[in-house]
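Lab meeting prep.
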Amino acid sequence: MLLQRSQRVLETIPVGSLGLIPLKSCEELGRQVNDYLVKWRHSSDLEHKSSIAFTGYERDSYLIPAHTPRFGSGEGKGTIDDSVRGNDLYLMVDVCNYSLTYKLYNYTNRMSPDDHFQDLKRVIAAIGGKARRITVIMPYLYESRQHKRSARESLDCAMALQELVNMGVENILTFEAHDPRVQNAIPLNGFETVTPAYQLIKGLLETTPGLEIDSRHMLVISPDEGGMSRAVYLANVLGLDMGMFYKRRDYTRIINGRNPILAHEFLGTDIEGKDMIVVDDMISSGDSMLEVIRELKKRKARNIYIFCTFGLFTNGLEKFDKAYEEGLFTKLLTTNLVYQTPDLLSRPYYVSCNMSKYIALLVDTLNHDVSISDLLDPYDRIQALVRRYRNGELQGQD
């Protein structure tokens, strides 16, 4: 399995002294990642840990304070409090954290993804080329929904990636990129899109006793054709059948920048009496997801579990509250990779899947310049997890 840090052999010399710079948007997740790194490195028994090549390897904190203050006009700057010369730096940013505000001509302005991306560039500029290597960890890829060009329009995600690379960023880590092919914009640099499938399945198994995980009792559903590969992977890993919906759209009109959906059409086997796992990369307004689970309930699905990497809930939670009260779904699971409101965390149907340990493993491994291929493919870990669940041994410590 090799997910536990104690099971990984990391004897190679680090690329540089490890530095973690979580921007304010990602402070809590960055603190959790740092706690894991500190614990692991204090308890590791590396043979050469005391040699000069491992200088700065074992510290009480790997966090490097960085600030992005604003002037009254809304302009800003990036500052770093400590020296970063020769460091292997990992910058973390949550471009979806709308809870942060700043003053603009004495008005309170909420930070948008554009503001967060600009602050990321300011911190990179403050580093000033002194770092040994810069890796950006951007769980929700900035402008990932504008990943392809149709007619005369901007190609924002590709432009953002090129901008980061031109500023000296060597590697970019993201989760469930809306379309991984956008990495073609930077073919000579590192780009990894990571799946949280293991953590989502673990979250479900730890909170839901008595599941029958086989093709006679459970089905994986893709809510649209774009998420087919995600659902196929999950179905194969769990040994389940899958079904999908495709969106019938009105291509004669554009509303809020998109062609409105007329109906969701289902393709798949009979689902009556079966549990459903509906898997998608994000919930934005949630309208499409709620329409899909209504269609599943019309076809007499039993329990419906919603898996989603990013829970944005741009139109609030009221619709989901109502759907839960109506019995349309049983649980909704998302990760903590983007900002979660206290209201969301308090909902009885919500399960938060913590990704901090996984990110810490990726950072620790990359700092040693070791391959992360085994971390990127969770197949074996999911199989072991399901076996433990079936044997009644799951104790929630992976």
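Slide two material, second protein:
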Amino acid sequence: MNSPALPRLALTAGEPAGVGPELLVRLAATSLAANFVAITDRDLLERAAARCGITIRLIDDDGESADARPQGNLRVRHIPLAAAETPGRPDPHNAQHVLATLTEAAQGCVDGRYAAVVTAPLQKSSINEAGIPFSGHTEFFAAHSHADVVMMLASPELRVALATTHLPLQAVSAAIDAVSLERTLRIVHDELRIKFGFAEPHIAVLGLNPHAGENGHLGREEIDTIIPVLEALRQQGMQLLGPLPADTAFIPAQRKHYDAVLAMYHDQALPVLKSEAFDRTVNLTLGLPFIRTSVDHGTALDLAGSGRADPSSLIAAARMALELVARRHQAAQP
């Protein structure tokens, strides 16, 4: 009996001058059962492997399936750099290279050539310095797919989705309106069912203000926007808690009541998650027509080139991508 084909996971290396290329070769050196395809410059990976003291075998990707991957083997979809990398010093000349890798990964997933994409960290500032407006992976994949998306970070113990992502704090309140909040909650609810297998997801929704506004004394966003949306969606059958004060929402007594949290802004909840499980936390983009996972950290320019970057988060991202692919395949079985 033939073994089933391994899932083809697209890997993007992110910022060439960051730790991403080193993380990719360390991932390839694991025994994870996946047909990894690195979408980046082949020579960049060779140099990264040398810095890490790792022996890898790079194979030009032919698009074919495989039922096994010898440890250290890594298929490559070669997209050349514009300029050779200097570890720790991002070069805006390579911005188009980075965007080309993301485009290939996203389109390859849409076309069915890859089962999922796993992304290493990139340097937003370097792309913007090249004159290309860019706010992050999440927004890029959303625009490419013409999809409404939600950023979620997940560890084995906690899942946190965001109502807003990379916004200045002063812009957050205006960005949370009834339409966007309802859309976000519907995406989170549907993806918890489809991707994570919760038949009836329970979602804790945080208030925007301290003490969830304290009945309007500390802000009216809860009264004017958040509570009406939650009440309307509860009438449609969603299991929603809140709005909860953020300072007590993560205590053990609360956690047992929900499957995921919706936070109103980036730094409201992510410090809790990352302080508990930084090396086991995965960034996911919900709402895309394909599976995308990523590390939960940045380019670590101070470590780039040293060969000492910890691959734990990228390994966790690859593991979660494989779990989601398997669940999707199981759900599709008659």
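Talking points for slide two:
The chain has a mean pLDDT of 94.
The chain has two domains: 1-146+290-334, 148-287.
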